[in-house]
Design a protein that fits this description.
The chain has about 100 residues and is of the alpha/beta class. It has a single domain, classed as Ribonuclease Inhibitor (Leucine-rich repeat, LRR (right-handed beta-alpha superhelix), Alpha-Beta Horseshoe). It has four helices and four strands, in the order αβαβαβαβ. It has a four-stranded parallel beta sheet with strand order 1-2-3-4, with no helix packed on it. The longest helix has 17 residues.
Length: about 100
């Protein structure tokens, strides 16, 4: 009898643990050593991303920006102090015209 009672008390907790949590819509990788390839891997899990901060990610180049082109919900992107070029940013801006890109 006690086991059934304890199981019933824990049921809401167990159900809550099994629910999948929604992916975040913001990601800050500021001041990290993230590479283009690592960025691509992280973004695969965050298709609904709205804000991405890459300030001082000095290993992010134009090759990393290619991974962002599929993030159609992206509204804000910070690329201060990265190795991206004006040409790479222009190409990304054309792919994501509604995204505010700061550099």
């Amino acid at each position: 009898m006690q086991r059934i009672f304890i199981a019933l008390l824990m049921l809401p907790f167990l159900i809550g643990c099994s629910e999948k949590k929604p992916a975040p819509d913001q990601l800050s990788l500021d001041y990290t050593e993230t590479t283009d390839e690592e960025l691509g891997e992280k973004l695969k899990e965050l298709p609904g991303l709205k804000k991405l901060e890459l300030t001082s990610c000095r290993k992010i180049t134009d090759a990393g920006l290619v991974h962002l082109k599929g993030l159609t919900n992206l509204e804000e992107l910070s690329l201060h102090d990265t190795k991206t070029t004006p040409a790479g940013i222009k190409s990304l801006q054309e792919a994501l015209p509604d995204c505010k890109i700061s550099r």
